[in-house]
Design brief:
The complex is a heterodimer. Chain A has 5 helices and 5 strands. By secondary structure, chain A is of the alpha/beta class. Chain A starts with 6 loop residues before the first strand and ends in a 15-residue tail after the last helix. The chains are: A alpha/beta, B alpha+beta. At the A-B interface, α1 and α5 of A face α1, α2 and α3 of B.
């Protein structure tokens, strides 16, 4: 069942790729795609700074789709910042890039990327990939609940 | 070379994804029965075609720039002794229309030295740097580009300075990367500064930026001077 209320934060500097991704999500009924086009905007969105202070208009994402080659802060830098911040690190970050470079892949996992996907050629494969993202991350995956765990008192 | 391969594999693949993706959408949008087509469907078809067209133009520019970058150093004119002032004049003549329409004032410093360079390539450097200044001049009331030479310091250098929007220090290295664009909506493929850097490296010089966001930008570089070669 499509999770219509889920929010996807898409960090993508190529407008045409962003359109491909958003149109594919919309075709499946996922409507809340928040698109930002550089790394600085992504961090502003996630930390509710600048034009993203309204938490209703800029809701906490259920998954982040992150390109690597971005202006200002690149994708690796954004990923590193997200995973270093306690309030953000539980958000799944899926790297979505054209790069198959081993260095990029290794570096992304070193910085705790949750998944690494290479954009495929052809609309059929592209839509299939977006569908898999939707099913896994927005339907099957359980996001972190808002409860505090005191590890010291658990035992 | 590794960096070059990385960039090419990443950036040249990008328009292909756009082309194939929108060809797929175009097929879908065209497959709707003619009499069921709405205005919105027709608009989508036009968008699909435009995206494909734009991506092929982008691909062409990326390939041309990649080729150009690979030629620097491999295909070169023999170096010659030439007054730097002459190269400046030629560059400004080439950009005359652009400078006029942008309303920018160009100041050229005095006492410019003789250099020992591939004249056409160094003209390419200046043209690129001046064009870059014009592109990022912002909304200044007194837009100005200054072309000069600093002979006072221990290590003399040439410069192109503007009073435009400037570049944050965190971006100073990144702007020289092939196809890197600070502003994706700006003109060009983002290869200009990579080409400039490569030309200067082939001449044994180097290039750096002195700039802060909002405070203009100064591109500095060294070149072989006559008598030093």
């Amino acid at each position: 069942m499509i999770n219509k209320l889920a929010t996807v934060l898409l960090v993508e500097d190529d407008e045409t790729h962003a359109m491909l991704i958003m149109r594919s999500f919309e075709g499946m009924g996922v409507e809340r795609i928040q698109w930002v086009s550089d790394g600085e905007q992504a961090m502003d969105y996630l930390q509710h700074r600048g034009k993203y202070t309204d938490k209703e208009e800029s809701p906490h994402p259920d998954v982040i789709l992150l390109d690597l080659r971005l202006p200002k802060l690149n994708g690796h830098e954004v990923l590193k910042q997200i995973k270093s911040l306690e309030e953000l690190r539980a958000i799944p970050v899926v790297i979505l890039t054209t790069s198959k470079n081993e260095y990029d892949i290794a570096k992304a996992y070193l910085n705790y990327a949750n998944s690494y996907l290479v954009k495929p050629l052809g609309l059929d494969k592209f839509q299939e990939m977006v569908k898999e993202i939707e099913v896994y991350w927005l339907e099957w995956n359980q996001t972190r609940p808002n409860v505090r765990i005191n590890e010291g008192k658990e035992k | 070379m590794e960096r070059f391969t990385y960039t090419v594999s990443h950036d040249l693949r990008s328009p292909l994804i756009t082309i194939q993706g929108f060809l797929g959408f175009l097929k879908l949008d065209l497959s709707k029965q003619e009499d069921n087509k709405t205005d919105a469907d027709s608009k989508k078809i036009n968008t699909d075609i435009k995206m494909i067209e734009d991506a092929t133009v982008k691909m062409d520019a990326l390939l041309a720039n990649t080729l150009e970058l690979s030629r620097i150093g491999r295909v070169a004119n023999p170096p010659e002794e030439v007054p730097y002032e002459d190269i400046v004049k030629d560059s400004l003549a080439q950009l005359a229309e652009k400078i006029r329409s942008s309303g920018i004032s160009v100041l050229v410093g005095k006492e410019l030295p003789q250099v020992y360079v591939d004249r056409m390539r160094i003209m390419e450097v200046l043209v690129n740097l001046i064009e870059n200044s014009i592109k990022y001049i912002g909304n200044r009331a007194d837009p100005t580009v200054e072309i000069g030479y600093n002979a006072d310091k221990e290590k003399p250098f040439f410069f192109v300075r503007d009073n435009g929007i400037g570049i944050d220090p965190s971006q100073h290295e990144k702007v020289f990367e092939l196809f890197y664009k600070l502003d994706k909506k700006s003109e060009g493929s983002g290869a200009g500064l990579a080409i400039v850097k490569r030309i200067l490296e082939v001449h044994g010089g180097h290039l750096w930026i002195e700039s802060e966001e909002g405070k203009g930008c100064k591109f500095c570089f060294t070149l072989p001077l006559t008598g030093n070669t």
